[in-house]
Amino acid sequence: MIYVWAFVVGGLICVIGQIMMDGFKLTPAHTTSALVVAGAILDGLGLYEPLIKFAGAGATVPITSFGNALVHGAMVEAQKSGLVGVITGIFEVTSAGISAAIVFGFLAALVFKSKG
């Protein structure tokens, strides 16, 4: 049943993003930013972790989980290290994903030719 809920929750997040682009005529950049901020706000309110426990990858794969990771890392490190932890926590939690995106983006640029 976890697969069904992951599909439903992940799909609903994507539907919300599509409605933002089609219905409100937002650009993909605006939509992505709004979804990241929504994930950050939901984590700040303590609502995103229960969603992750309920839907698993349906909540961790969409872009909203990036906002969740930023806030969650900052809050955990702030409890340990104070104000300095807010900054270090953001980088600690998201560094692997950002590093992977840079490395894989570079490798893709080497393999594929740009049309521009």
TrEMBL record:
Domain of life of the native organism: Bacteria
Pfam families to which the protein is assigned, alphabetical: SpoVAC_SpoVAEB
Keyword line: Membrane, Transmembrane, Transmembrane helix
Transmembrane segments: 50-71, 83-112
PANTHER family linked to this entry: STAGE V SPORULATION PROTEIN AC-RELATED, STAGE V SPORULATION PROTEIN AEB
Name used for this protein in its record: Stage V sporulation protein AE
Organism the protein comes from: Paenactinomyces guangxiensis
Lineage, uppermost ranks: Bacteria, Bacillati, Bacillota, Bacilli, Bacillales
Gene that specifies this protein: spoVAE
